[in-house]
Write a structure and sequence with these properties.
alpha/beta; five-stranded parallel β-sheet; 8 helices; 41% helix; 21% strand; globular
Length: 233
């Protein structure tokens, strides 16, 4: 069985070397790039299984690279973990809105990156649900095998995390998930402060599937608890 390949992009070579060491010890094959242009070249030529991407790069920043990846049909579903020394909530929200699957702030424990990579790769490799053809809620039709979602026969573009979250909610329509339950199932872990990340993913989904995101008919907020998908939409 071939090793899963991780591309690590950071202009600080010492950070790349540390992350590389831990990931290789965990059994991954690690590729490296130190600027945005080299990262894009590696992405297009090597097609890695997952990207660990620094936000602040000397040429193209992590936001621009993420946008380019999500707009590229051959790379669009690639899992992305974003690294940054910036800790403002707005930066995290923007990163998630443009398509990052996870977000880690510096300084970080390299073991945490390994744990996040493993959790994200498990979601990619095994999925979260038993095999099924389609799940329907109202005008939403989710095709699990093809990993696509349609709204009134119109294809909706989702990130991998958004698809996993919507699949979970639609597969259990009417059930109220707590925030921690959702985080554990879609991210593989939950800890204090991650609720804002979940809220951002929910907000992104509502913008894509709700007729009026300010008055959602599909994904409902259960105040003080979490979220649920209505049975009829």
């Amino acid at each position: 069985m071939s090793k899963q390949r991780i591309l690590v992009v950071d202009d600080d070579k010492s950070i790349v070397n540390v992350v590389r060491g831990y990931l290789e010890q965990a059994g991954y094959l690690v590729l490296a790039a130190y600027n945005g242009e080299d990262a894009l070249h590696a992405l297009r030529s090597e097609k890695p299984d997952l990207l660990v991407l620094d936000l602040m790069l000397p040429d193209r920043d992590g936001w621009e690279i993420t946008r380019l990846i999500r707009a590229d049909a051959s790379l669009g579903v690639m899992p992305i973990i974003m690294l940054t020394a910036r800790v403002e909530d707005v930066d995290k929200i923007i990163g998630l809105e443009i398509g990052a699957d996870d977000y880690i702030t510096k300084p970080f424990n390299a073991r945490e990156i390994v744990a996040r990579v493993r959790a994200l790769m498990r979601r990619v490799q095994f999925g979260q649900f038993a095999p099924s053809q389609q799940v329907r809620v109202g005008a939403l039709v989710l095709d699990i095998d093809r990993r696509v979602i349609f709204l009134d026969d119109r294809l909706i573009e989702l990130t991998r995390t958004e698809f996993t979250l919507l699949q979970l909610l639609m597969s259990h329509a009417g059930y109220t998930f707590t925030r921690d339950e959702l985080l554990e199932k879609i991210m593989g872990y939950a800890y204090e402060g991650m609720g804002r990340t979940l809220d951002t993913h929910i907000s992104n989904l509502r913008k894509k599937i709700e007729p009026d995101p300010s008055a959602p008919t599909y994904i409902q907020t259960v105040y003080g608890v979490g979220y649920r998908m209505t049975r009829a939409g």
